[in-house]
């Protein structure tokens, strides 16, 4: 059928921009240009957000659009209801309060650490409709495909009167959320700490922004990546020694990402001591993709680190970063430029190794942080914790994991899972079946929320030893290898001592003794810094830890 020119003229191709113009006109009597008066924010939100809208709310690992989330809770559910929320990290009570009040109905997210117990209960009580559990990159990607937001509620440090934004050290995911909304004629609302005449730098231009509101208090920042060395245990030090000797040195790992945890903090604090004794400076751990961990300070000061690209900032590290511009990515003003989306991509494709922890692992190495009664999600771990098929550049560490002589054979990214065999309350980490399968059915998910699939895991480290899974020839052998280092868990009790000895002889597993490590040497005296105060001293007084980490 041929469409006539008359019919073509009748069809409008600007319905979205026309709808946006009409919506913005509805608040003209309440705003001053692009500036929303602080006290009018709830009334403005009630006019700008329509029932059923898809709303992306900035809830990062650290930076929260806390003023906007508290304001959203106050809207009249008769005016604003059935929202489809997109929140990468569910971190604040009001992120879930809006579902209790009928303001929102459905959610897509990646991580819910602080609210993991509550959201699990709300799912069970059918008070919230769960779209999907995503990785960060996956969620960001869908913002440009089938989860395009009608409204974005985000946070920045400062704005000028035109709406240009300075996001400061904690840029995180703000540009991605804003771009997905602004360029499909959605409405972008930004809370800022202050409006100034001149910005230190422009991180997001005013043409991407519709409205700015000065918050009644600075947006919330959580020092999520700060680990006090006082709490690092001898077991974690033993694991860190095995990681350095049996993985980093063995494979020549130079580029890497560390997850959150005391076990990786221990690795960072052993580099200037144990790593130095092995003569590994310059040979391992030179280029990092991670938040500015305070426990990395001694390694930086000792000359181990060449570069650090960050997902976000970390409270108290601002002056240290500004003074170490050779290491970090900073603007002309000296402040950190972070970008969560680009850091996730770098962690996925550009690094040789990802190392993290888990709450549960089955006999084949599949793992998840989603357990019965706790829907924590998994954030970016699945993005970085897999072997990306699109990788084409070869490094020594990547190439070192090649196990075939086939001319088309490729190397493999190192994906390391670290776990003590038992959690708190004597719960075994190694189980026959993941709780994620139960949660899948309960939450009506089509796919079980597995964090990292066993097929991607190359190494598992426990207090018993290391399993070099990338060398396994079969599922049966893989299961034997995992059982050999799973301690007295149900999976570990399956191991046969004779089989374990054969696995050691073949180099498929390694106990500390096989790596030249004496268990009795795994003491806190090896740590380059044993408390927060010593980290401050290493930094020359530049690190300013949050009050709750001060013990002096």
From TrEMBL:
Transmembrane segments: none annotated. It comes from the Bacteria. PANTHER family: ACETATE COA-TRANSFERASE YDIF, MALONATE DECARBOXYLASE ALPHA SUBUNIT. NCBIfam families: mdcA (TIGR01110). This is Malonate decarboxylase subunit alpha. The lineage of its organism: Bacteria, Bacillati, Bacillota, Bacilli, Bacillales.
């Amino acid at each position: 059928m041929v469409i006539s020119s008359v019919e073509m003229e009748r069809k409008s191709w600007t319905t979205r921009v026309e709808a946006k113009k009409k919506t913005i006109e509805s608040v003209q009597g309440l705003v001053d240009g692009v500036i929303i008066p602080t006290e009018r924010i709830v009334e403005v939100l009630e006019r700008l957000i329509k029932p059923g809208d898809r709303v992306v709310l900035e809830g990062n690992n650290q930076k929260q659009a806390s003023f906007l989330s508290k304001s959203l809770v106050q809207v009249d559910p008769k005016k604003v209801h059935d929202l489809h929320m997109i929140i990468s990290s569910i971190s604040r009570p009001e992120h879930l309060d809006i579902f209790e009040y009928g303001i929102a109905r459905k959610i897509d997210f990646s991580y819910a650490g602080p609210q993991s117990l509550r959201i699990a209960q709300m799912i069970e009580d059918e008070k919230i409709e769960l779209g999907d559990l995503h990785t960060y990159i996956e969620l960001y990607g869908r913002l440009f495909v089938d989860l395009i937001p009608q409204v974005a509620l985000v946070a920045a440090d400062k704005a000028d009167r035109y709406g240009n934004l300075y996001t400061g050290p904690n840029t995180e995911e703000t540009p991605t959320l804003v771009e997905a909304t602004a360029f499909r004629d959605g409405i972008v609302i930004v809370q800022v700490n202050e409006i100034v005449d001149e910005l230190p730098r422009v991180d997001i231009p005013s043409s991407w922004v519709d409205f700015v509101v000065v918050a009644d208090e600075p947006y919330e920042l959580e020092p999520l990546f700060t680990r006090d060395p006082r709490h690092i245990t001898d077991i974690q030090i033993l694991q860190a020694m095995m990681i350095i000797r049996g993985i980093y040195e063995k494979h020549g790992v130079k580029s890497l990402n560390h997850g959150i945890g005391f076990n990786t903090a221990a690795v960072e604090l052993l580099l200037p001591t144990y790593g130095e004794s092995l003569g590994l400076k310059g040979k391992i751990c030179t280029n990092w993709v991670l938040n500015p961990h305070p426990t990395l300070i001694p390694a930086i000061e000792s000359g181990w680190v060449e570069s650090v690209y960050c997902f976000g900032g970390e409270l108290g590290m601002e002056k240290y970063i500004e003074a170490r511009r050779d290491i970090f990515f900073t603007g002309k003003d000296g402040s950190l430029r972070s970008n969560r989306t680009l850091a996730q991509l770098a962690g996925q494709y550009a690094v040789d190794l990802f190392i993290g922890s888990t709450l549960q692992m089955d006999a084949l190495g599949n793992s998840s942080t989603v357990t019965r009664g706790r829907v924590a999600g998994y954030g970016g771990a699945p993005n970085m914790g897999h072997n990306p098929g699109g990788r084409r550049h070869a490094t020594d560490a990547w190439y070192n994991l090649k196990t075939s002589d086939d001319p088309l054979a490729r190397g493999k990214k190192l994906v390391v899972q670290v776990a003590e065999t038992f959690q708190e309350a004597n719960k075994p980490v190694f189980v026959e079946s993941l709780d994620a399968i139960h949660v899948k059915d309960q939450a009506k998910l089509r796919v079980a929320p597995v964090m990292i699939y066993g097929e991607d895991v190359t190494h598992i480290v426990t207090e018993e030893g290391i399993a070099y899974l990338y060398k396994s020839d079969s599922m049966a052998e893989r299961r034997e290898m995992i059982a050999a280092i799973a301690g007295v868990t149900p999976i570990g009790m399956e191991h046969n001592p004779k089989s374990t000895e054969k696995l050691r002889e073949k180099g498929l597993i390694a106990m500390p003794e096989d790596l030249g490590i004496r268990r009795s040497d795994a003491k806190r005296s090896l740590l380059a810094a044993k408390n927060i105060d010593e980290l401050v001293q290493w930094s020359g007084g530049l690190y300013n830890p949050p009050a709750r980490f001060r013990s002096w």
